[in-house]
Write a structure and sequence with these properties.
Length: about 290
């Protein structure tokens, strides 16, 4: 039926009406009935929304069985929404991991931190390497923290490396206060890290375990250290970088390329690159030559 009023478009055809006079129909399915809601929504949206809410509430079966059924549907909907959100976040995180193109790093990190355990279990269920969750988190956190880390002078940074990087015949003595003290014997890559650290004034610690690393981190913070570079296996590195975030210390992380707690390996060039962040190219090149 044609409807015209003062708000109709001038010169329009007989079937055209103004937006203010638009009348629509919406069907809402709830339980076994359908509710037809008609009204001038754009003319009085507050009234129509209230009426819609009252109609929906009136259609709900408030018996014990109905309430349980409704709760089940709501929980199922929440589960679906969370699952889709996590999949989307992981897809963006994986894109960052593979291509280095980072989108929405902070929201993705928040989702990973909140659902860390379930995500790793989900990867195991589908027979995927759960370390990928750690890798994605490390890449994103490195991206988020990079500028703050680079702004801290090397002398105000600290480096934590795991004792498993040591050679099996490592002569380094150990103390409960400082961990292992490298003799710079050259049998493992830790010697290179120590040499670079000594050249730029960065303290290097060989941590016997995760708890020791966290204790050194907090002790270094109280001593005026304002950034940390961590080397560890995927899980320990994730936990360490999360602890650094909570402690307000910008961190960069380099995961081990070979794990196993004994004679592990790391991309030493990548570690040295992170040690030299913030130095000019000439000084960085000079330091690299001294350890070549």
């Amino acid at each position: 039926m044609s409807h015209r009023g003062p708000g109709a478009l001038a010169g329009g055809c007989g079937g055209c009406t103004s937006i203010a006079a638009y009348r629509g129909s919406m069907f809402i399915a709830s339980n076994t009935q359908k509710i037809l809601i008609r009204g001038t929504f754009w003319a009085n949206p507050q009234r129509d929304v209230m009426q819609m809410a009252l109609d929906i509430l009136g259609s709900i079966d408030w018996s014990p069985v109905g309430i349980v059924s409704l709760a089940g549907r709501i929980l199922a909907l929440i589960f679906v929404v969370i699952s889709l959100t996590l999949l989307f976040a992981l897809a963006l995180g994986y894109r960052a991991y593979r291509r280095g193109k980072v989108l929405f790093p902070r929201p993705i990190l928040l989702l990973i931190d909140v659902f860390y355990g379930p995500l790793k279990r989900l990867f195991r269920i589908f027979r995927r390497d759960p370390r990928l969750v750690d890798d994605i988190s490390i890449v994103l956190r490195n991206h988020v923290n990079y500028d703050d880390y680079a702004a801290v002078p090397p002398k105000d940074r600290v480096v934590l490396v795991p004792q498993c990087l040591r050679h099996t015949r490592c002569p380094a003595p150990m103390s409960s206060e400082d961990g292992f003290t490298c003799r710079v014997c050259g049998m493992c890559v830790i010697a290179k890290i120590y040499k670079v650290g000594d050249a730029i004034g960065t303290e290097v610690y060989i941590a016997p375990g995760g708890r020791f690393a966290k204790r050194i981190l907090m002790r270094s913070k109280h001593a005026g250290k304002r950034a940390v570079l961590g080397v560890a296996c995927h899980t320990d590195l994730y936990e360490g970088m999360l602890a650094s975030k909570i402690g307000g210390i910008p961190a960069q992380g380099v995961p081990l390329t070979t794990e196993g707690c004994v004679s592990t390996q790391v991309d030493i060039d990548r570690v040295i690159d992170m040690l030299l962040v913030g130095l000019d190219e000439e000084e960085a090149a000079r330091i690299r030559e001294t350890i070549a």
